[in-house]
Amino acid sequence: MKLLTGLVFCSLVLSVSSRSFFSFLGEAFDGARDMWRAYSDMREANYIGSDKYFHARGNYDAAKRGPGGAWAAEVISNARENIQRLTGHGAEDSLADQAANKWGRSGRDPNHFRPAGLPEKY
């Protein structure tokens, strides 16, 4: 419900046409898939010190989709970090994750965070 409300609000504020609104939705959906793929790869890799890389990569891939993808990446990243804070996980780690998220969304190379030895598959 919040997602739908947010999308409607964005369309009203930005005064987007119906065509660009549906384009935004498609980008957001694809961006959310990019975020899920990065999360799945992180779980599969199970490689110590790689979480910042996967944060940056997911946000980078989603943001490449366009404004909808960047929006989805930001919403998903913020929700995840807010949940971690509420459950008592380290605030310092959360800030580092958010820095990696912003790095990726800005279009900067996620390999900046890639740890040595992480398989090339990722």
UniProtKB/TrEMBL annotation:
One of its GO terms (cellular component) is high-density lipoprotein particle. SMART domains: SAA (SM00197). One of its GO terms (biological process) is acute-phase response. Coiled coil: none annotated. Keywords: Acute phase, HDL, Signal. Residues 90-122 are annotated as: Disordered. PANTHER family: SERUM AMYLOID A, SERUM AMYLOID A PROTEIN. Major acute phase reactant. Apolipoprotein of the HDL complex. Belongs to the SAA family. This is Serum amyloid A protein. The gene is LOC101134521.
